[in-house]
Amino acid sequence: MAKSINKLKLCWYGKSIFLKEYFRVLKNKGVGGANRFVKMIYNAIKNERLIEHDKKAIVHFLIPPIPSQSFARHLRTYTDSLILKQKIQHLGDVLISTTRECPYNCWYCSVKNTPHGEMKIEDIKKTIHTLKEWGTSTIGFTGGEPLLRTDTDEIIRQYSDELTFIIFTSGYGLNPARAKKLKECGLFYIAISLDSYDKAEYDKTRGVKGAYEHSIEAIKNAKQAGLYTIIQSVITRSMLANKRILKFINFVKELDVEELLLLAPLGTGRIFDCDNEVFLRKNEHDQLKVLHDEAVKNMELPKIYSFADMEDHTKLGCGAGIYHSYIDINGDLWPCNYLPISLGNILKEPDTVYKRLKRYFKKPCSHCILMKERMNLQKLSNGKLPIPFEKAKRFLEEHIESIRNEDIPDFYTSVGRYYD
Question: What's the pTM?
Fold first, then answer.
């Protein structure tokens, strides 16, 4: 199991980056600003199990490894936004769909009803160049199945000194040679899907016989290559009701991965207009948060991360368009890979897209926008996703008005960042 470290060790790893940013804040905002900066760091790591991988400290997979140039970029973006208040967005991580194609047919596929094809390699580079200008530090390649493409490996090699890359994959095609090449190119994180310890059940959820073996082999190959390996799992109501989640966690422990990402089914793609019985209730989301907290204290469990915990009102809240976004194969930027609204095309109108981000997603929410507004979004959709900006504009205007008087998540108030 991954080696756990304490907060002091993490600060030691990142001492030069932390000190440089601390004195920058002190110079611009005085002692009060410097104290808020320290509080921001503390709040970001206080309820996470910190681990060591490749002689770097890791908070979780959405924060670049410490130390690294990408972490320095990440910290600078958050400091500029939350402490110095020089910008609104702190868009730390952005997912890019490199291809819509996939050999599987998952029941919860989030890209169902989106355009087919793949993003041109030149457009991926152009997109990354724009994201660098915006201050993004982590790029996730997703799909479809991103491992169907090999030309993106060289993009990772080209930018890995400045940015941290993560691949979200089913594991399809991750043989030992490919895993080794990705590591050599500079890939740090890889998240591999595995939703069950039961082979027949997992193959059924993926719609393809042999999916289970592909995932298990991919996990082993990623580990062998030295990649920081994450298992990403969609947790159903039945897994929680039958307490099979506990057996699954013990199964993951035996696979000895660095992190387990627990995801809830979200109403987009294939389940955009699905019956509400599919989605977790509040008490079930709370169970995922409890599992996260237990794994922080219990070193016998694998490190667990869940969006149910991170997006809670006591933490960061909904990250859509604030610290996270998604870009589909056509270059349309969505606030989140689960919120199917296009804010415009980043390849054709990056300045316009960024202005829309600043207008409609400047204030963090304490709830998942998609799940709260799913019925309204269904009315706007004609069966094709994403919903064009012109069609969603009124919805977005109503959204920012509806949250005007809502409390913002605790992370922001704790560092003195308020939004009008």
Answer: 0.96
